[in-house]
Amino acid sequence: MTATMRTAPTTTPPTGPRRLRRPGTRRHDPRRHSARPVWDEEPGAAGKAGKALLLALICFLATYPMIAVLATSLSSQREIAAKNGLVLWPGHPTLAAYRQILSGGVVTDALLRSVGITVVGTLASVVFTVLMAYGLSRPRVVGGRFWLLTVLCTMFFSAGIIPNFLVVSALGLRGHYAAVILPTLISAFNLVVVRSFFMGLPRELFEAARIDGAGDLRILWTIVLPLSKAVIAVIALFYGVAYWNSFFTAMLYLDMDQWPLSMILRQYVLLGQPVADDAGLSAELSAPTQAIQMAVVVISLVPILLVYPLLQRYFTKGVITGAVKG
Amino acid sequence: MTVVPGAVNAARTAAMVRGMERKIPLWTRVRRDKVLLAMIIPGFLYFAVFQWLPLLGNVIAFLDYQPYLGFVDSAWVGFANFAEVFGDPTFYEAVSNTLVITVLQLVLFFPVPIALALLINSVMSTALRRFVQSVVYLPHFIGWVLLVSIFTQLLGPLGVLPHVLQALGLPAFSATTTPEFFPFLMAIETIWKDAGWGTIIFLAALANINGELLEAAAMDGAGKWRRTWHVYLPGIMPVIILLLILQVGQILSVGFEQIILQRDAVGPAAAEVLDTWVYYHGIQDGAWGPAAAVGLVKGFVGFALVLGSNKLAHLVGQDGIYRA
Questions:
Q1: Do B43 and A129 touch (CB under 8 A)?
Q2: ipTM of the predicted structure?
Q3: N or C: chain A end with fewer CB closer than 10 Å?
Q4: Does the CB of A136 have a partner CB in chain B at under 8 Å?
Q5: What's the pLDDT score for residue B13?
Q6: Which of A51, A132, A161 sits opposite B43 (nearest CB)?
Q7: Contacts of B288 in chain A (CB under 8 A)
Q8: Which of B314, B157, B159, B160 is nearest to B242 (CA)?
Q9: Domains of chain B
């Protein structure tokens, strides 16, 4: 007990030792952070320290790459060279790289295009997914099993790169932004997640609304959607991140002057080449410096980092696990 | 008709409803469900055009496909494309690279989410557990372009790792441009991106384990490690088997975007996999027929592997994906 007190004083409430609690009276004392069952032995000091260290290391490994990139992007080229690329903390933080890439030109345009594709694509995907999921969640709909099977089968095989490319080409979509949205409009997985959520809603709600004379659109809009904010937020995040990150469809179907940010990222950082610019900005025609490369990385990273904290609680609370289990 | 709670009754009710539905004329049902159908049809059209129609496109695996001639006028060549592919040494190189990368990923990646889930599950403080989950899920949302850019910055020839090695007096080593290291790099990247995300399903399975089993084991004197081995692991074994089957079905598929972004850094001898072979031969070089043939073979082998491993799961007494 004393060992625990020393290593983790916050877990022990100051009022009364918990040992005196009679077994079986209350397993989850609200004053305790810990939900440890009574039969589970408290780990020793070494065990606790080891576990804490391991968790800290895991969190560090998961976040360090992003921190390193951010630090580099805030440094001057001279500092990066002096520190051999290993900038842990910029000595003289400068926004020069950001000023350069955001003052119009290739990166700014690509950023706006990426935002456009992501916003339009996510909206379209969420709307069509929710509509279809609602239609398929209602019992007795005509052809319900047929519609559902055409969706479920696509989860087990896909046609492959070449046939997909030929279909998109045959539809005349190459060179149109629709080519990076339509081929991935609905994800069967997301559809199934939303459908099973809708099916889990109490059917009395639907029956009451129907008796009150509400049609399906009205039920969807006034009853189902307000109850489904969490699951819709989750699939919106999935879709949004996919559109934001998508690069292969852009590489296949879009012209260079239509490139989203992900393609600029590939060109700058992975190929180390400038992007030809009609405006002929000299700064961008030379090979991009490391700080500029990392600034482009950070700009691509920021929207994800901004949206993620708003939505992550849904994952930790297990919104999607029900669907994952099938 | 009253609604009786309980799965059996619900199923019986559903069957009764279906029987009654059959007596209503189709056109009456269509008119009754017109709003629902209007919701379903746009989505159905998407799946028809962008998921099912391309399946038919696989017919070009049997054609000498010429884009200006189209599907109808291109000459039928039977299995000539397949013969060409199976006589091409670069195809076998792509097969072996694919297998090396996926098998290594299976061995290195697969246990990580399980171990991580057991660790997170053992954290008693809800707040701390949620925090760790939030942090380890995050990399899943970093796209491959971003991820590869970041890893190149850290491990590439101009990156952090060579300088750290130099400072430690070790020989210089560039992880992103060494062909022999390529499969390990792919595995490391995948672990960074998806090991945390992969814990979700195991955490859900762990949360469903009956607490009385754990309590009984503890009463019988089993310590933490023995409880992990004899209660937790058997408890999540169905999920482990399920994911293993799905992984085996994917053994011919590596992350296409991940590979194509890094292929040029090490060259095709080390990094050409089946999917990139299809891309370069088909879309880049215009060998449409052979490329589609490879895609088709890959699809069929993958499907057979899923069926086979599912059967294997039945033989060892697990449920697998389905039970026929």
A1: yes
A2: 0.84
A3: C
A4: yes
A5: 67
A6: A132
A7: 162, 166
A8: B314
A9: 7-66 (no CATH), 80-315 (1.10.3720.10)
